[in-house]
Amino acid sequence: MHPLDTKASMSASMPELASDCIILTGPTASGKTSLGIHLARRLNADILSADSVAVYRGLDIGSAKPTLQEQAESPHHLLDLVDPATAFTASDWLLAARTVIQDCRNRGRRILVVGGTPLYLRCLRDGLDDFAPVNHALRHTLNDELNRIGPEAFHKKLGQSRPDLAATIHPNDSKRIIRALEIMQTAGTNHKRSWTPADDSKTQLFPCPILVIDHPRTILNSRINQRVEAMFESGIIEETEAAEKHYGIGTTAAQAAGYKESLAFIRGEITKQEAISKTKQRTRQLAKRQRTWFRSFPDAVWLSA
């Protein structure tokens, strides 16, 4: 059964992390995939992907999704779950992860969580809060303000009240910025959003090992630049065209580094070289945010590469 098909019948309880689980993470382009496959084979483990772009079908190049050959070396889960036009939340991922983890245990397999989406990892540890009710009038007002002042200034507005939350949301992710401001103005500045972990999570520990791949910044930036160039050489623009034609690309998927720039190129808004340069810049910014988040895991073991 597909993990998402069980949503209506499953309880909201969290996946249980135990000694049979290990988490391997690190910033984008740090080498998680290859090391994860090596560890999974040694540990007799299945790999559970914690990548917010790899959940989408047809978005393979930009997410650096494991190839079919790599997936054949070790069983992989939580890849290609939904079409890129579909909204997929952290709670959806948690529900799917819970099912996969229990299935692995039933088969006597260990679980190796591999991925660089800190929100998924922190929610896996800390859980999710209940949704604050939608305030449609306030949301309309916030949308008008966004259109008036622009996304960058709107993101700064969130940062003035909650810099910790602003750091977890890309400045162009208007939907999540509006939701955060909506909840703050409705329920208070310190309200715990349904799609973010508890504010005291820095004091909490993972009940299983968490390994973080670390590279010096100059080396990581070089790896990022090489990856981005390889993405465009491998056909990310053509992949984006195909995904948009066959599935449609929703707001969340369209913000992913590489796909946003490819869409802009397809629409004639930027040149191919500008798309490559912008993707490199946004990916470096992503890596910086990821490293900041990983440092909030007090029990992480950093692997110097």
Name the features:
Histone, subunit A, Rossmann fold, alpha/beta, 50% helix, single chain, 305 residues, globular, Helix Hairpins
Strand order, biggest sheet?
Answer: 3-2-4-1-5-6
Q: How large a portion of the residues is in β-strands, by DSSP E?
A: 5-15%
Distance between the termini: 39 Å
Superfamily (CATH H level) name of the largest domain: P-loop containing nucleotide triphosphate hydrolases
Poorly predicted ranges (pLDDT <50, ≥5 residues)? Answer: 1-12, 189-202
Return Rg in Å. 19 Å
- What is the helical fraction, as a range of percent? 40-55%
Structural class: alpha/beta
Specify the CATH architecture of the largest domain. Answer: 3-Layer(aba) Sandwich
Q: How many H/I helical runs?
A: 13
Largest sheet: 6 strands, parallel
Number of strands: 6
Summed up, the domain count is 3
Net shape:
globular
CATH top level label of the largest domain: Alpha Beta
CATH level-3 fold name of the largest domain: Rossmann fold
Strand/helix succession: EHEHEHEHHHHHEHHHHHE
Mean pLDDT score, rounded? Answer: 86
What do you see in this structure?
This protein is of the alpha/beta class and 305 residues long. The protein folds into three domains: 3-11 and 19-127 and 206-214 and 295-304, Rossmann fold, CATH 3.40.50; 136-187, Histone, subunit A, CATH 1.10.20; 217-292, Helix Hairpins. The chain is built from 13 helices and six strands. A six-stranded parallel β-sheet has the order 3-2-4-1-5-6, with helices on both faces. Helix 6 runs parallel beside helix 8 and helix 12 (259-266) packs antiparallel against helix 13 (272-294). The longest helix has 23 residues, at 272-294. It is globular and about 55 Å long. It starts with 20 loop residues before the first strand and ends with a strand. Mean pLDDT is 86; it is low at 1-12 and 189-202.
